[in-house]
Model the fold of this input.
Amino acid sequence: MSTVTMNPVVPEGVSLPIYMDNHATSPMDPRVLEAMIPYFSGKFGNAASRNHSFGWEAEQAVEQAREQIARLIGATAKEIIFTSGATESNNLAIKGIAEMYRERGNHIITQVTEHKAVLDTCKRLEKYGYRVTYLPVKADGLIDLDDLRRAIDDKTILVTIMSANNEIGVVQPVAEIGKICHEKGVIFHTDAVQAVGKIPVDVQAMQIDVLSLTAHKIYGPKGVGALYVRRRNPRVQIASQIDGGGHERGMRSGTLNVPGIVGLGKACEIAMQEMATEAERLRAMRDHLRARMEAELDYVEVNGSWKHRLPGNLNMSFIYVEGESLLMGINDVAVSSGSACTSATLEPSYVLKALGLGDDVAHSSIRFGLGRFNTMAECDYVADKVIGIVKKLRELSPLYEMVKEGIDLSKIEWAAH
Ligand SMILES: *Cc1c(COP(=O)(O)O)cnc(C)c1O
Done:
């Protein structure tokens, strides 16, 4: 007899569906929207128009946003280049540096759990004669700094390692990486999309030379991002990948997305003011979610380092549960699974596989991405829902039954078909 609740009571103040996928994108903060609205209508000027007040007004708003972004990461306004998002920022950084420093060398170092915007960019450069080293990660998702030291040679021009991972929330030792790169005279780029606004990021203290960020992961609008490019000690040069009117100091042409840029600036200003208290709140919710599931379920595992982790990330495997059934069972909660839909097949996440997880375990994994607008009541509902469905699915799982009876699955000889 099943005693499992499949449909827990929806607590007061909680409305369904619940959004818990903030690493994919975040809802806009109403304060960001409010700041943007005037720039869609009355203040519609082109920031590059030098001859009238419409242009000056737009330019002033853009320069204020540059300041707001710079302040959040310890940079100066002149070091901020606006882009269409972090995919473009990563492309511009990696291709732009590869092109500019080609005489000096053709070797780039990255690591295996990077976002596709970094990995695919590196792959393309390999076609053009660049050599790329993909560092492995340890079981906790962190790179080994000795691997990095060993990988740098006299042809290395760039190290690109993300600050925090978008699936498992693991935070790399950015300051140590920056130190190693500067000792060896190699440029250090970091995809800091998931870190900026969530944990302290300081390009000076961490010796970061180039940094990618995007508005829509920090409660800003989609389609706008920025690239920080260091101007001194050392001065980094980037070959433009989009040519035209010479905007953004010649590094990225194209009329600026003024409302989007205003939104990105406002999102950074809010993050600067609220990051510390928000992180504490997210960590409390995340810890609660984990504790509830671990209290009521066996064979659950957290993926990636618990210590070096974003406050809003929980990535868990529910072993002996079929991933797709699990997601279907919690269809009023928006989360991500450890499967990536590539063409028609469900591929296990390459990030989870890099940690050494088997395909089955990767498929049974869920990323809970907590954000500014989640509540503790939502966490309780999500915990109830997941606990219910996992128990239910395990009642139907012969594998789980066998494990409970003490049978060692690795010793079984399965009949061949
Ligand atoms: C979302 C994300 C990106 C891509 O950013 P867009 O602005 O959507 O292009 C790049 N890197 C990481 C780590 C991300 O999470």
Notes: The two ends are 33 Å apart (CA to CA). The pocket of pyridoxal-5'-phosphate is lined by residues 85-87, 115, 117, 162, 166, 191, 193-194, 214, 217, 225 (CB under 6 Å).
